[in-house]
Amino acid sequence: MRAMGKGPTSPGGRPEEDVRISDTGRVEAFSDAVFAIVITLLALDLRPPAHRPGELLSALVHQWPAYLAFAVSFVYVGVIWLNHHSLLRRVRKMDVGLRWINLGILLGAVIVPFPTATLAEALAEGGGHDERVAVVLYALAAAIMGGPWWGVFTYLRRHPHLLEPTVTTSYLRAQRIRPLTGVVLYAVCGSSAWFITPWLGLVCVIVVILYHGLTSEGLHEGPLGRLLASARR
């Protein structure tokens, strides 16, 4: 970053680069609001079922695909939020590029209700082909999320002045691997759903979501890292 007093200045006399950098407060507030809205939209798909008198319990049980799809996506959005929260705890300042990448992360979150509703409907109707398509769509939506997450850590590696001083290059290097690993694993999930069985693909998706949740603080800093460290002792 250029030293204060050098380079182009804004009309107010402040260095232009300094003007473009802000704290993370507004980004955190906006992002949290988006995550809250996404989770609310997921819950709106849970509606009381149509039923005859005395058949409410049966109708509720019959809606199990909607409950399953909601549970998976609630955990998924929660994991995205956990990873986002962990990221912003290590970011000291935001610039224009980082704000745009953050919008990419939020875009990946706001599309989750669509594959969720598609999955619930396909599971409710049954039929192997539609279930395959629905699981592949879900895996594809999750894989797309890897793009902005890889981008954010690549960007921060090139702009370390935006980070807290305690963040290490080894942390950034490890975090850049996680989204790429996720893309590969979600591709495996989608392939499993298409070529083997949709239920295998769905279980695979759930496992990958849990992996990202357990490593939200990093490959070695989070619960998974502590578990592996304990196993090596």
Low-pLDDT segments, ≥5 res: 1-16
What structural category arises from helix and sheet content? Answer: mainly alpha
Largest sheet: none
Overall 3D shape: elongated
Q: Approximately how much helix is present in the residues?
A: over 70%
Along the chain, the helix and strand elements come as HHHHHHHHHHH
State the separation between the terminal residues, measured CA to CA: 43 Å
Determine the mean pLDDT. 87
Strand content: under 5%
Number of helices: 11
Explain this structure.
With 233 residues, the chain is mostly helical. The protein has 11 helices and no strands. Helix 2 runs antiparallel to helix 4 and helix 4 runs parallel beside helix 10 (198-214). The longest helix is centred in the N-terminal third of the chain and has 27 residues, at 64-90. It is elongated. The model is unreliable at 1-16 (pLDDT under 50).
